[in-house]
Each structure stands twice: as structure tokens, then as C-alpha cells.
Specification:
InterPro entries: PAP2/HPO, PAP2/HPO_sf
Protein name: Phosphatase PAP2 family protein
Keywords: Membrane, Transmembrane, Transmembrane helix
Number of domains: 1
Pfam family, one: PAP2
Number of helices: 7
Radius of gyration: 19 Å
Strand content: under 5%
Organism: Shouchella lehensis
Shape: globular
Order of helices and strands: HHHHHHH
Length: 181
């Protein structure tokens, strides 16, 4: 199933110049735009606390997610599609483990982290993250399962961080309420 879906997406590569350009651009630059969005939240956060909270939360989610991704890559080597198969490869890539997709993992960690605090901006960033994931398969660098794993790791980390943060905040409110009484 994974390889079949890979073929459906990657077989489009190299046949439609505009689509090729969009996918190349997405893979190379949308991740940078997401990083700039995170940086923007940090800068605005110097004046507005909620933006700093968003930036710090998202930064933590990004670091933890990437750490988990690197550990998994070190434990489980999965050859990239272009190593094992004849694929449409638009740009050269290293042959490091394909699983999970670091581009996708980082993009979704940022998109999901911001989404939990700012739905409109987060929704746009999540669309960008999805485009990055699709582009990684389109370019022949990852299988769909690699992309799904990147998304899943980011989702799990953001969910657990949010849950932990909510518990801490609830505990802080109780502690303040007891002091006031």
C-alpha cells in the first residue's frame, strides 16, 4: 500500500512543469516560511505574552519532535525510495534513512504548535505542512509512511505538551486561589 501510494504521487513528477516547480518550492522554502512564522511569534511575543507562550510552546514541540525523529532514524534505517526503486527524482538528496520525514515532522510541529493557540494562522501553517509532506513524496525522497510518521510524532508531542501545560496551569490557578483565600 505504501509503495503503491508512493507510485501514484511520484509518477506525476517530471510531467507537469508548473506542478514540479510548486513541489520543489514547497519542499525547499515552505519549511523556511514556517520557521519565520515561529520567529515572528517570538518577536511579537516580546510585547504580547500569548505570542511568547505560543513561540516557546511551539519551539519546545519542535525540539522534542526532532529529537524523537533523530532517535528513530538512528534505530531504524529505511532506504529512501530512490535507493531501492527507479523513481522520478527532481533533485538529488542524501541517502540517510527515510523514516521519518524530518521536513514533515518539523513543519507539523510548528503548524500544530501554533494552531493550538491561534487557529487561523495555524490552519494556514498546517496547509503548508501538508504541502511539504506531499512534496517529499512527489520528489521521490520519502514514502507516504515516512510523511505520516513525521506528522504522527509531531501530533503526539504537541498533544502531550498541551496536556502537560494545561495541568501545570490548572495547578497554578489552584495554588493562587489557595493563597488568595
Amino acid at each position: 500500500m505504501d509503495y503503491h501510494l508512493f507510485r501514484l504521487i511520484n509518477d506525476l513528477s517530471g510531467h507537469y512543469r508548473l506542478l514540479d516547480m510548486v513541489m520543489l518550492w514547497s519542499s525547499e522554502y515552505v519549511t523556511i516560511l514556517l520557521a519565520f512564522a515561529l520567529f515572528g511569534f517570538f518577536i511579537v511575543g516580546l510585547k504580547k505574552r500569548i505570542y511568547m507562550k505560543t513561540a516557546l510552546f511551539t519551539g519546545a514541540a519542535l525540539i522534542i519532535s526532532m529529537g524523537i525523529g533523530y532517535v528513530i532514524k538512528g534505530l531504524f534505517y529505511r532506504p529512501r525510495p530512490f535507493v531501492e526503486h527507479d523513481v522520478n527524482l527532481l533533485i538529488i538528496h542524501n541517502t540517510a534513512s527515510s523514516f521519518p520525514s524530518n521536513h514533515t515532522l518539523a513543519a507539523f510541529a510548528i503548524g500544530l504548535g501554533i494552531f493550538f493557540f491561534h487557529k487561523k494562522v495555524g490552519s494556514l501553517l498546517l496547509l503548508g505542512a501538508a504541502l511539504i509532506g506531499l512534496s517529499r513524496v512527489y520528489l521521490g525522497h520519502h514514502y507516504p509512511l515516512d510523511v505520516f510518521a513525521g506528522f504522527s510524532i509531531a501530533l503526539l508531542v504537541v498533544f502531550l505538551l498541551k496536556k502537560g501545560m494545561n495541568k501545570l496551569e490548572k495547578g497554578d490557578r489552584r495554588h493562587v486561589a489557595k493563597r488568595v483565600s
